[in-house]
C-alpha cells in the first residue's frame, strides 16, 4: 500500500480498491479521493497508468487539432513531421518515463500515432488504406513506443545510478508481505522483457 498526499487530498494505492485511511494534519481531516492530478500526471488508486495514457492522448489530440491548419497544409512533409514531433509528441510523451504499459495501452498509443499520420496525409477512413500505405505516404515508421522505451531506459539508468528512496522503490527492496495473486509488472520487468524482444 502506498499513500500520496497533496493539497489536502490523498490517494491510497493498493490492491484492494476502496481502502479507507484517516489522515489528519493538525485538526484538519485530509480528503481521500480515487484519483488526482499531480505535476500534470493523473494518479489513480489502482496504481495503473491507463487513465494517465488516455488523458495524455486526449491532450495530444487537442494539440494536433489546434495546429491542424499548419500540420495538414501543403508544406513539405518533412517539415510537417518535425512540427508534429515538436508540437504533438512532446505533449503525449510528458511523464512517459514512468509508465508501465500493457498491450491495451500500447495499442492505444499506436492507434493515436496512426491517427496523426492519416490526418497529415489527408487519408479518410472511407478510403480503406492500410497503415503501411499511410506510413509510406508520410515516409515514417512507427516510433512512439520505441521512443517511450528509450526514454524509460535513460530515466531508469539515472535512477539506478543514484542512491535513495526512488532506487529502493524501483528495485522493490521495500519491507512487508506481498499479497496473493499475480505480481504486477513493474518498470524493471517491462524493460527487461523489452530488451529480449529487441
Structural overview:
This protein has eight helices and seven strands. It is of the alpha+beta class. The chain folds into two domains: 43 residues, no CATH class; 101 residues, no CATH class. Strands 1-2-5 form a three-stranded mixed beta sheet, with no helix packed on it. A two-stranded antiparallel ribbon has the order 3-4. Strands 6-7 form a two-stranded antiparallel ribbon. Helix 1 packs antiparallel against helix 3 and helix 4 packs across helix 5. The longest helix is centred in the middle third of the chain and has 18 residues. The model has no long low-confidence stretch (mean pLDDT 80).
SSE blueprint:
Layout: E1 2-6, E2 9-13, E3 24-25, E4 28-29, E5 31-32, E6 35-38, E7 41-44, H1 50-66, H2 68-71, H3 77-92, H4 103-120, H5 131-138, H6 144-161, H7 165-170, H8 187-197
Amino acid at each position: 500500500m502506498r499513500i500520496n498526499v497533496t493539497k489536502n487530498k490523498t490517494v491510497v494505492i493498493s490492491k484492494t480498491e476502496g481502502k479507507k485511511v484517516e489522515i489528519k494534519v493538525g485538526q484538519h481531516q485530509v480528503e481521500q479521493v480515487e484519483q488526482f492530478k499531480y505535476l500534470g500526471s493523473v494518479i489513480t488508486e489502482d496504481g495503473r497508468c491507463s487513465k494517465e495514457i488516455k488523458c495524455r492522448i486526449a491532450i495530444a489530440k487537442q494539440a494536433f487539432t489546434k495546429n491542424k491548419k499548419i500540420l495538414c497544409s501543403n508544406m513539405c512533409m518533412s517539415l510537417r513531421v518535425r512540427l508534429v514531433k515538436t508540437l504533438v509528441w512532446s505533449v503525449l510523451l510528458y511523464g512517459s518515463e514512468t509508465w508501465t504499459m500493457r498491450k491495451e495501452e500500447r495499442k492505444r498509443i499506436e492507434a493515436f500515432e496512426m491517427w496523426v499520420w492519416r490526418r497529415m496525409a489527408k487519408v479518410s477512413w472511407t478510403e480503406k488504406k492500410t497503415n503501411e500505405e499511410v506510413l509510406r505516404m508520410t515516409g515514417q515508421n512507427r516510433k512512439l513506443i520505441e521512443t517511450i522505451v528509450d526514454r524509460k531506459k535513460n530515466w531508469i539508468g539515472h535512477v539506478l545510478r543514484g542512491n535513495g528512496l526512488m532506487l529502493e522503490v524501483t528495485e522493490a527492496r521495500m519491507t512487508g508481505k506481498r499479497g496473493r495473486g499475480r505480481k504486477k509488472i513493474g518498470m524493471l520487468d517491462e524493460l527487461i522483457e523489452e530488451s529480449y524482444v529487441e
